[in-house]
């Protein structure tokens, strides 16, 4: 049965990735293109300043793939493959939870696992290190940013599993409601402390040394040697829109995985669970 559940997870993940890509292609892609245009304009302004100051100017390297190919085939394939990977992980988590977290209907359990996946893998790490369009971020900090984000994802998942285990352990003594509230509170407190301890991206050593101490790596206005602004900072409204649509794409991804997998799992498990489970939730 485990193999059948994994296969259904892959199908649900592929469907989720496809739906998320369609949404992102319509709403997020224009924000990405605008960010790339901003980055190009800022680089041109910086080169003009460097040239006027007698500094060497490096020519931009051509892209290996056209922008059209990146925005359609590249992102689409990437999101579908990511959805399939998340679907496989979802199916493993579902299989582990099946029969171990109370008598839940297959569809109810699927949606709860989907909510956990969205929160643990994406949204909680996003609160500390939110998604950014191409123009935001310095080349010198790519590895540090990647490692910090992966650390947040790992810790969030571990703490989420710990919160579920804590709630299950407390349920016999405190009841479902109180045990769930205490488990959620414990998760929020610990993940909050972790967020406070980990550095903000603008406070990484390379950023502090080069640009000073800031909360993020969002580009500030570019100025000449007299302090006159020659190119504006990154548009805050556009950054907000990109992040909003990024969250929307992930909501769709995990929502479709939960719905599709729940439907498929219900058909697979119904004969085994119909008699004692159907009336519990």
From TrEMBL:
Keyword Oxidoreductase: no
Keyword Transmembrane helix part of the UniProt annotation: yes
Annotated Pfam families: CbtA
Transmembrane segments: 73-97, 109-127, 147-167, 179-198, 244-265
Record keywords, A-Z: Membrane, Transmembrane, Transmembrane helix
Leader sequence segment: none
Highest taxon, organism lineage: Bacteria
Record-linked InterPro entries: CbtA_put
Protein name: Cobalt transporter subunit CbtA
Organism: Kribbella aluminosa
């Amino acid at each position: 049965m485990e193999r059948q559940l994994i296969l259904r997870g892959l199908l649900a993940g592929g469907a989720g990735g496809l739906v998320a890509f369609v949404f992102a292609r319509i709403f997020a892609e224009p924000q990405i293109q605008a960010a790339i245009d901003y980055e190009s304009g800022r680089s041109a302004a910086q080169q003009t300043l460097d040239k006027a100051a007698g500094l060497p100017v490096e020519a931009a390297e051509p892209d290996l793939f056209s922008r059209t190919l990146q925005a359609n085939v590249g992102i689409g394939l990437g999101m579908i493959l990511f959805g399939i990977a998340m679907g496989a992980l979802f199916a493993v988590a579902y299989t582990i939870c099946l029969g171990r977290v109370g008598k839940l209907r297959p569809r109810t359990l699927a949606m709860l696992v989907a909510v956990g996946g969205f929160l643990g893998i994406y949204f909680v790490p996003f609160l500390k290190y939110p998604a950014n369009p191409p123009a935001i971020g310095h080349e010198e900090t790519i590895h540090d940013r990647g490692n910090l984000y992966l650390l947040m994802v790992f810790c969030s998942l571990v703490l989420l599993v710990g919160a579920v285990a804590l709630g299950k352990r407390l349920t016999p003594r405190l009841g479902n409601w109180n045990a769930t509230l205490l488990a959620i509170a414990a998760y929020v407190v610990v993940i909050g402390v972790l967020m406070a301890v980990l550095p903000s991206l603008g406070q990484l050593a390379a950023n502090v040394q080069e640009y000073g101490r800031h909360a993020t790596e969002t580009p500030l206005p570019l100025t000449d040697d007299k302090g006159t602004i020659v190119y504006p900072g990154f548009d805050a409204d556009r950054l907000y829109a990109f992040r909003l649509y990024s969250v929307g794409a992930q909501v769709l991804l995990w929502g479709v995985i939960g719905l599709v997998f729940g439907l498929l799992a219900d058909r697979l498990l119904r004969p085994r669970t119909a008699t004692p489970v159907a009336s519990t939730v």
